[in-house]
Amino acid sequence: MNRYLTTTLPYVNADPHIGNALEFVQADALARAWRAQGESVFFNMGTDEHGQKILQAAEKAGQGVQEYVDHYAAEFKNLIDALNLSPDAFIRTTDPAHMRAAEEMWKRCDAAGDIYKKSYTGLYCVGCEAFKTEKEIIDGKCELHPSLTLETITEENYFFRLSKYQAYLEEYLSRTDAVIPEWRRQEALNFVRSGLEDFSISREKARLSWGVPVPGDDSQVMYVWFDALTNYISTLGWPEDSEGKFNTFWQEGQPLQLAGKDQVRFQSIMWQAMLKSASIAPTHQVFYHGFINSGGQRMSKSLGNVINPYDLVKKYGTDATRYVMLRHVHPTEDSDVTWERLDEWYTANLVNGLGNLVARVMKLAEEHLAGPVTLSGEDQALEDAFTERINAFRFNEAMDLVWEHVAKGDAYMTEKEPYKKVKNEETKAEAIVDLEKLTRHIAKVAVHLAPLMPATSTAILAAVATNTKPENLFPRLG
User: Fold this and answer.
1) What percent of the chain has pLDDT above 70?
2) Would residue 198 count as lying in a domain?
3) DSSP state letters, 331-395
4) Domain residues for 344?
5) What's the predicted TM-score (pTM) here?
6) Is pLDDT above 70 for 2?
7) What is the CATH number of the domain that holds 240?
């Protein structure tokens, strides 16, 4: 099967945060797991670099906007190495090829009769970079950005006929696998059933110059979302598709998008209507993750509780950071992460758990086995339960299964006591059998860790292959 998966493109108006890392690591775990299952995979990442928030941030920083986005795009791209990610593409919405694709998307929607121009007065949220409808406003504030004041703006914009696609979207969202988890699908479906309004897809260039020009109208630039959403197919070479990637992975494949829970209306409603208008197949599935809070509060610079993924990697290492994202952050619900909890999880489950087991087993193996154990096919096979959990986005449960095996290894070591029996000639042969079994057991753990903690998996398997104790996998915190 041809599998396509993409993260959303984060705005480059600030440093990466732990929520970005969560989405990237989830996507990478899926990509690695699918490749291991023999699937053909195209994994996309990138950055969203147009719009009002970015222009304002650049002006505030006293920088040219291109210089500003280049700096922050690099900060996000560097996460590929920091988190050991394996994308097949990293797209920037300032790439000329992407901008041409956004213009083509506009032209196709226009040709379908779905774009028109009108004067409009409405309440505008800078955080969303969108005009808000009555049902999106709570107590006079945007429900997604309650700390921002809505601006009353009157201007002439182009609009997309979202209302035309109500019946289509109801049908699309009635497909039970269109959105994961189920309650997000119901959220999207209920929003559509409540009635859709056409939405503005351009901004006056006099007010916002930083964006993709509207074809045929130099006085307007594209609304940032109309531009940015097109990246999901421009990264595949659409519309030319000279290498056939778009046809292979989107039209004939199973496109999967990962996004935060605040993205439902953009990803599963607006984007799907745009695709239909342009006569392109819909996204097969969108998976929505929750938010990461800290100390019971949503992370914010003003509260000083923002956790930077580079700080996590610096303190704990790459694979330990991936471990936290995949085991201790719930795949779909909001989760709370603090530095105190991070220290506890790292010490208990990595230092004293996996790291200690591997060190004890391989030290004994190096000292007492005649050579490396021979791994069987069963030793190197993934359990069906593990694969099923990964494919269902239950990353935490897949991790739990691996740590059940870590616990079984510890229990076996405690019960059999090979470290004692190997010192007695009468019980040494029995101890050797136990050590061989334990070595194969940690190899099986490593095989299951391959898509989740790839460097750790490689280190353990290399130790087993050479019958040597590896360097300390997880150093104790200083």
Assistant:
1) 99
2) yes
3) SSS-EE--HHHHHHHIIIIIIIIIIHHHHHHHHHHHHH-SSPPPPPTTTTPPPHHHHHHHHTT-H
4) 339-466
5) 0.93
6) yes
7) 3.40.50.620
